[in-house]
Every structure is written in C-alpha cells, then in structure tokens.
Design brief:
3% of the residues lie in helices and 46% in strands. The protein is mainly beta.
Length: 558
C-alpha cells in the first residue's frame, strides 16, 4: 500500500553553472519497503535479499523539453547487486557499478531508447565509505547533448544520437531502486539527499565545440575510413598486419552483440593501402563465442591468426537466459570443450588455414615471434588471485611453457590485471603493457633475461585500455589504446626511452566521436612512407552498430 512521507522543502541548490529551483520534496510516494528519514535525506537499505527500499517523485517530467537533476549520495556497507540505482526513470537512469574487491566504482548516466539502443557517460570514482558525493546530470534534446558532472570533476558531455534525443512522454522517477516493489533487484544501500530537478531545461549553448572537433596530429588531420560495417551486427576486437606483398589484412570478431553465442572470426583484405576492402570471410567458428583475434605476418612467410574461445554469454545471468538453447547445448557437450586459445597458420597468403592444438595462454594482441619461437604474456586466475606470466612455445605454437611470473594480485586487490601485450625490443629486452580496468591506467613491466624475471608492474600516466605496443623504426615505442572516458575514442602516446617514461604532454587523439564505451582494441603498424595506420573498432551516432575503422596519420618529426 502506498504511503506519503513528509520531508523538508528543498528550495534552491546550486551545482556549478546554473541553479536548480524546481523540486519540492514535501512528499514522496513510497515503495513497499520505505526508506528512513535521516537529517533531511533518505536512507535506503537493500542488504536483505528480496527487500529493497524505494521512493518516487510524485511529479512526472516531460523528457522532450529537457531535464537537469542534481543530488548527493553516500554509500554504506556492501551493495546487494552490481548496478544499484540512485535515480531511475527507465529511459533515464543514474546508477552505480560496484564490483567486488575494488576500491573504485563507476557512476553511470544512461539514456535508453530501448534495450539495444542506449548511450551512457561513465565516471570512475574512488570509494570512500560514508563520504558524500555530488552528482549532476542533464538530458538536453534541444542542445543535442547529455552531460554528467561528479563532484569537482570536469563536466563530461556526449552528443545525443537522433534516436536518443527523440525521447518523449512523461516519466516518473524512483529513488534508490528501479521499481517501487520490495523485490526490486537494483536496490541501493546508502543515503540520498538534496535532490533537485529542473525541467524544462534548455541552457544557453555551451562554448565547447572544440571537444568534438576533428582529430589532428601535429597540425595534420587524421584520415578515417571504414574497414568493415555490417548493419545489425557487432564487429569488434580487430587484429591487423601487412603481408610481404603489401596487402593489408584485418581480422575481427563478428557477432550479434558484445556478448553472445554467435561470435566468429572474419578476415578482410585491402590491396590499395586501406582505401577499399573485401567483404568479410569467416575463417574460424564453433558453437561458442570466438573473439579477440590477432594476425601476424611471420618472417618465414607464414601468417598466424590467434583468437580465444569463451562461453561469454554464460558468464552473465541476464545473457545466459537470453540464449537458453545455446547455453543448454554447451552444458551438454561440456563447457571446457569450447575454451582456450586457437592458433591458425596459413602458408598461402591467408587462403587456407591449418589449426594447431588449443593452448592455455592467451592475450588479444597475440604473441611475438622471437628467434624461432613464440613469446606471449597471459593473464589468468588461480585460487582467486590474478596472475600474469610470460609463456614460450615452439615455432608451431605448441608445447607452451611458463618462463616467469610478470606480476600477481591477491583476491582482495583494489586493482585488476587483464589482457597484457608483450613487445620484443631490438635491444633484446621485453616490454609488457597490462590492462587495468578499475582506474584505467596502463601498467608496464620489463625483462632483460628473455622473460624469466620481470620488474614489478608499474602504473604509467597512460589512461586507456587495452594497449598495443609497437617499436618504431627510429627506436621509439608507440602505445595505442582505446579511450573509454569522455570524449570516447582512440589515443596513442610515445616513449623515447623504451617504455620507461611516456610523453603524455603530446598524447595523440586519433578519434574522439565515440557514442559510448564499446570501442577500442587498436593495433598500429608503421607504413613504408613513415605514416601510421591504426585499426580499431568503433561506434558513433551515425553508425550505432560497432564497426571496424582505420586511421591514417603522421607522427610529428622526432
């Protein structure tokens, strides 16, 4: 039964630019499990399974005229789910993403057209128990942008797609959950106060068009072209190399969504330096999800393609139930029959492929061929701990053995190590870049004895992941990486001392018009004329299905 809760009137709250004056929290509609009134705010409790506090604003808001919301919250205790809601209206929501064993969490502002079409802005925040956090977010269909501001951080803005800026109808917003029923699965445990809603909301145009300006490096524009785009399909995680005859070859994963049973590995070619591309040809597919391919032209004339096999959709409850038939089949056959790394060799220019036995080590950018053998860094879990090791095999990618441990993290570590990439430098040393997704900074480790001992992984100033490393002909090391922070896109950075330091003052922005964070995994090759070619997967307001894109660009003179 619905009840009415009286709260003090909050008349004016100022958050940065603009003043919110449009909300009267004199009464709220309570859910079946009401929050408690504490110091002028509300205390929500979702710690008991099946019981979660919630309350709703009584006024509905018309999204077509824009809206601005400001609030403060603080977290108490562990959350009962990964995505607790602070402010939810279905089409617009502000929620947290809180993974176990981390001391950082994500604040996400989501604009949802439907379950498959959405845009979001994500900010990473350091967790501090009981500390108040200020948040402000806007949906501005007239200005064609959405924005999110957390505390004193810089305002993050994202252009709205045509569909996203066309939301209509009045929306009722819920605090602390995604529904008023006690059984809501997205309950928040903590306090919310100082909620201010301004609607209609159409501020004066902001002077930040430069945020969305076309990328350039050294004053010269970055030239972009589409490698492959299939309407209604999700293309991602490319690998890229150039064959001895000059032909460009790109491999990528094609599927229905980022996580699904239908992932397969496809290959496309270009004979004119990336201007025109063939239609995709499938080269590897099973009843599970094939993903994260790489391709390498080897010194002996062979071409190697690697990729992983993972029952990805079965890892998440919501996607496992979405594909019941595929899930049941995998369980009948045996989940272990679909995992591991795959190594495909071609001796005829990528026309036909032989397959080596599956191996255990894996990384998205694949191994390096060094003095007749393959070297590869791989991250995995053992007894709850995260471990990164260097592996070696023979020249046929068989008989893998561990050479040495690169780094390890305890189960309760506040950071995580994933998707390392190994680079063999001309001076004989080895360099490994490690993805760290919690705070987003690249970690680096080095070996000078062929991979048997390694320096402790150190955090670099590079924020983005996962990174691809390349030693240029002039000896500099280039890291290219997906930038899953606003403005979303692809970036690169140089090291002049073999990866010890990085010139972040001159970080290169190769692309900055991403629609959301589902992008990245770049691979860069140095062309004979000294230009760079970077291949990655991307998503934009114009192309909402993830696609493969190329960037041609020139490094500034050394």
């Amino acid at each position: 039964m619905k009840r009415i809760l009286l709260l003090m009137l909050i008349s004016v709250l100022c958050f940065g630019e603009g003043v919110g004056t449009k909300i009267d929290l004199a009464d709220l509609t309570l859910g079946e499990q009401p929050p408690k009134v504490v110091d002028g705010g509300l205390s929500f409790d979702a710690s008991v399974p099946g019981i979660a506090s919630s309350a709703a604003l009584k006024e509905a808001y018309d999204l077509s005229v824009g809206i601005k919301v400001a609030l403060e919250f603080r977290i108490f205790g562990p959350q009962s789910n990964v995505f607790p809601r602070l402010f939810d209206g279905g089409k617009l929501s502000l929620h947290l993403q809180m993974e176990p064993y981390t001391k950082h969490y994500k604040i996400k502002f989501l604009v949802s057209v439907n379950s498959d079409v959405y845009q979001q802005i994500v900010e990473v925040v350091e967790f501090e128990q009981g500390a108040w956090q200020k948040v402000e977010f806007t949906y501005e269909p007239q200005g064609r942008v959405m924005s999110l501001k957390v505390g004193d951080n810089q305002l993050s803005m994202l252009p709205l797609s045509e569909e996203a800026r066309g939301l209509t109808g009045k929306v009722n917003f819920i605090l602390g959950n995604n529904q008023l029923k006690a059984g809501g699965k997205r309950g928040f445990t903590g306090e919310i106060r100082n909620v201010v809603v301004t609607s209609p909301y159409d501020p004066n145009p902001r002077e930040d068009e430069a945020t969305f300006s076309k990328p350039s490096v050294g004053g010269e524009p970055v030239r972009h072209s589409v490698v492959s785009h299939l309407r209604g399909r999700h293309l991602a995680f490319p690998g890229f190399d150039i064959l001895p005859n000059g032909e460009w070859v790109v491999v990528f994963r094609e599927g229905e969504a980022h996580v699904c049973p239908y992932g397969r590995i496809c290959l496309v070619r270009s004979r004119d330096g990336g201007l025109n591309w063939s239609a995709p040809v499938s080269i590897s597919d099973t009843a599970s999800d094939e993903r994260d391919p790489s391709i390498h032209a080897l010194p002996d004339g062979r071409v190697l393609v690697t990729h992983g096999g993972w029952n990805s959709w079965m890892f998440y409850a919501e996607t496992k139930d979405k594909f019941p038939g595929a899930s049941a089949y995998i369980q009948q056959v045996g989940e272990r029959n679909f995992g591991g790394s795959r190594f495909l060799f071609s001796s005829d220019g990528c026309e036909t492929w032989s397959i080596s036995p599956r191996g255990d080590p894996f990384c998205p950018h694949g191994p390096m061929f060094v003095e007749g053998r393959f070297l590869m860094a791989s991250a995995f879990r053992r007894d709850g701990s995260r471990i990164v090791e260097c592996f070696a095999s023979d020249g046929n990618a068989q008989n893998w053995e561990s050479l040495g441990r690169i780094g390890s993290l305890a189960k309760d570590s506040v950071i995580d190590f994933q998707e390392p990439h190994l680079l063999s430098l001309r001076d004989g040393s080895l360099l490994v870049a490690i993805r760290e997704p919690e705070i987003g900074f690249m970690y680096i480790s080095r070996s000078v004895d062929g991979g048997r001992t390694w320096t402790t992984p150190e955090k670099t100033p590079i924020r983005g992941f996962p990174a691809h490393l390349l030693e240029l002909r002039d000896g500099r090391v280039l890291a290219s990486y997906g930038y899953r922070y606003f403005p979303y896109g692809i970036r690169a950075c140089l090291s002049n001392d073999g990866g010890k330091t990085w010139d972040m003052e001159h970080e290169f922005i190769l692309q900055n018009n991403g629609l959301n964070v589902d992008l990245g995994y770049p691979v860069t090759r140095e062309l004979p004329n000294g230009e760079m070619a970077t291949i990655y997967y991307h998503v934009t307001a114009e192309r909402r299905d993830c696609f493969i894109e190329a960037a041609r660009w020139k490094l500034p003179a050394k």
